[in-house]
Amino acid sequence: MTLLISDGSVVYAEALWDHVTMDDQELGFKAGDVIEVVDATNKEWWWGRIMDSEGWFPASFVRLRVNQDEPIDEYLAHPEEAQTGEEDPASLGLLLGPGLPCKEQMRTNVINEIMSTERDYIKHLKDICEGYIKQCRKRTDMFNEEQLRTIFGNIEDIYRFQRKFLKGLEKKFNKEQPHLSEIGCCFLEHQTDFQIYSEYCNNHPNACVQLSKLMKVNKYVFFFEACRLLQKMIDISLDGFLLTPVQKICKYPLQLAELLKYTNPQHRDYKDVEAALNAMKNVARLINERKRRLENIDKIAQWQSSIEDWEGEDILSRSSDLIFSGELTKLSQPQAKSQQRMFFLFDHQMVYCKKDLLRRDMLYYKGRMDMDHMEVIDMEDGKEKDFNISVKNALKLRSLASDEVHLLCAKKPEQKQRWLRAFADERRQVQHDRETGPIYAQFLFMHESTVLKVCPFHQTVCNIKHPSLPTALPQQQVFMLAEPKRKTSTFWHNIGRLTPFKKEREQRRIKRRALCSCLNRPF
Questions:
Q1: What is the DSSP secondary-structure string of 216-274?
Q2: Coil, helix or strand for 344?
Q3: Residue 491 CB: number of other CB atoms within 10 A?
Q4: Which residues contact 221 (CB under 8 A, 6 or more apart)?
Q5: What is the pLDDT of residue 114?
Q6: Are 153 and 133 in contact, with CB atoms under 8 Å apart?
Q7: Poorest-confidence range of 30-39, 112-121, 408-417, 509-518?
Q8: Which stretches make up the DH domain (predicted)?
Q9: What secondary structure does DSSP assign to 65-76, as a single string?
C-alpha cells in the first residue's frame, strides 16, 4: 500500500468505528466514512484526508477498500447487483467473502473479529500475569506486594474472568457458519462481572505514577525488558501493555454496535445483541460515574477545609458526591426566624453555611441534615400551618426520627423545582450505591499511597516511537463513551476563592480520616 501511495495512486479506507479525536492533529470520523489514505508508513497510525480535513487516525479503526474505483456505500445499498454478476466477482470475494449475501458476510466479519480479538486479549493478559507479575514476585528485593498491587491492579482477576467469558463465547460460536452465531447472551450473562474493570480503570493512574518512578532506575528498566523478552512479547513498553484493559472495555460497545448494524431483526441473536449493547454501555457509564466520584473526594476535602468553624464528622465519612448547591431562605422551629443560608446537598446529608457579611466569599458552618431520615414535602404557595406564616416557592424537610422540621424557600419557582429534582436524585443515588456498593469505600484502598495527590486519568499515554504521531494509542476513552461530555461545573472552579489561603493540612487530615475509616484503622 505504501508503494501504491508513493506511485501517486489514491487509496481509500472505510471506517469501521467512530474515532473521537483527542488531539487537534487527529482526524475524526464516523463509522462508514470513506477516508483517503495519504501516508501509511507507520503501521498503527495513518495520515488521512476527508474533504478539507486531514490528520492522524488509528489504522485499526478502518478497513481498506479493495474496489477502489467505486464507493462501498453504493455496493451495500444494492447488494442484489453483486449477485447478478454486474460487479467483478473476484473483487467482491475479496471484499465480502464467498457465497454469502452482503449483510450476512459483514456479520461474519464482525463475529470473527470479536472472537479473534478476544483470543488475542487472553494471550495478552496471560503474558502480563506470567511474564511480568510472576517474575516480579520472585524478586522480593525489588518489589513488595503493595507495589505490585498498585502497578498491576486487579488484572489477575480480569484474566480469570476473561478466560471464563471466552469459554462462553466459544460455545456459542458457529465455526461453520459464523453469521449464525448467537453471542449476545454471553455479554448479558456476564454484564455484572464486567464491572470488575471499574477497579482497574480507577487504579490505572496510580499504576502509571508508580511505574514512572521505577522506570527512572536502570535496574527496573532492564528487569522489565528482560521479562518482555523472556515471554516473547511484542515490542511495547509495560505501560502500553497495562493500558490494554482500559482500551478493551471501551471497545466492547463499539463491537456490539457494529454487530447489531449487520444483524437482521429476524435473527435469533438480534434482541440479545441489542440488550448486550445497552448493558455494555451501562458498564461504561458506571465506570465513568465511579471515576468522577473518586476524583470528587479530593475536591470535597478541599471544600470542607475552606469552611470556617467546622463541627462534627467529616463529609467524606458518609458522602462522596456533591449533588447540588445554592442559596435558600431557611426557617426552623420553634423561633421560625428567617435566615439566608448556602446549602450543599451531598449523598446522605445536606450542609448549610452562613456567608460572611463583609467577605461574601467566606462561609461559616451552621449545621447539617441527615437526608437518610428526612422527608421532602413540596409546599403550595400560601399559609403554612406548622409555622403559621405565608410562604412562596417553599419546600419542607421533616425528620422521620424526631420533631425536627425545616422550611426552605427559593427565590424563584424554577429554583424550587431544581431543588426538588436534586433531592430525588440524591435518593436515587443512595439507592444505587446500596445495590452496587459504596463508591469510595470500594476503591479507596488503591489510593492509600497517593490519597493526598489525586492523579488525572488522562495523563496516561503509551510510548509511541514516531515523534510526530499522536501521543495516545487508538482508543475510545471509557469516560467519553457512555454519555456526552458534561458541562464543567463552576462550583468546584470557584472553591479556591472561598478562602484566601489553602488549608492543605486540613485537607490531608480529612482525607486521611476518611481513608482510615474505610480501612477500619485507627486515626
A1: TSHHHHHHHHHHHHHTT--S--HHHHHHHHHHHHHHHHHHHHHHHHTS-TTSTTHHHHH
A2: strand
A3: 14
A4: 215
A5: 93
A6: no
A7: 509-518
A8: 106-290
A9: -SSTTS-HHHHH
d(CA 339, CA 333): 12
Residues 244-281 have pLDDT tens digits of: 898 888 889 989 999 999 999 999 999 999 999 999 99
At residue 124, the pLDDT reads 93
Cα distance between residue 514 and residue 517, in whole Å: 5
Reference 163, options 129, 136, 137; nearest CA is 129
**How far is C-alpha 163 from the chain's CA centre?**
23
pLDDT tens-digit profile of 219-231?
Answer: 999 999 999 999 9
Q: Is 32 left (phi over 0), alpha (psi -120 to 50) or beta?
A: left
Q: Which of 9-13, 159-163, 315-319, 385-389 has the lowest mean pLDDT?
A: 385-389
Domains of the chain: 2-96 (2.30.30.40), 102-291 (1.20.900.10), 321-437 (2.30.29.30)
* pLDDT exceeds cutoff 70 at 118: yes
* Dist. CA 352–CA 310, nearest whole Å: 11
- 393 within 8 A of 381, measured Cβ to Cβ: yes
Q: How far apart are CA 499 and CA 238, in angstroms?
A: 43
**Residue 203 identity:** N
Contacts 24+ apart (CB under 8 A), 86-93: 91/66, 91/67, 92/67
Q: What pLDDT shows up at residue 22?
A: 54
CA distance 108 to 501: 62
**pLDDT > 90 in the chain, percent:** 43
Pairwise CA distance, residues 61 & 250, whole Å: 13
Nearest Cα residue to 209 out of 451, 445, 443, 455: 455
Give the burial string for 318-356 (b: 16+ CB within 10 Å, else e): bbbbbbbbeebbbbbeeeeeeeebbbbbbbbbbbbbbee
pTM (global) more than 0.90: no
